[in-house]
What does this fold into?
Amino acid sequence: MRPLLAAAALVLLATPALAQFPPPGVYECVSENGANLGELTLFVAGDYSFKNVDGNSASGQVASAGTDVNPLSGPLKDMQLIGVFGTDDTGKTTFRFTGADGLEVSCQ
It folds into this structure.
């Protein structure tokens, strides 16, 4: 019985890490050379909106596993971006995306 309880406790402790999802919010996105690319607005459940510098906005959805962020649809998928996110001790979240063509994007 004790091994079963220990295994259940380990599963429960590991579950939050597996279910981690980027925090909703508005993030300014720039290229690796600092050029403004637009604004990423992340909603709950993986929905997002991206407004480019011209003011055009489109929406889509992302999937997240751990700290990985993979666009399922919308402009981030169109740009072929995949990425990761991290949140520091102050609660500031940063996304780092890489495109198939070598494009590097940071959103904070």
Observations:
- The beta strands are 25-31, 36-42, 47-52, 57-65, 68-71, 81-87, 93-99, 104-107.
- The mean pLDDT is 86.
- Helices lie at 2-18, 75-78.
- The longest helix spans residues 2-18.
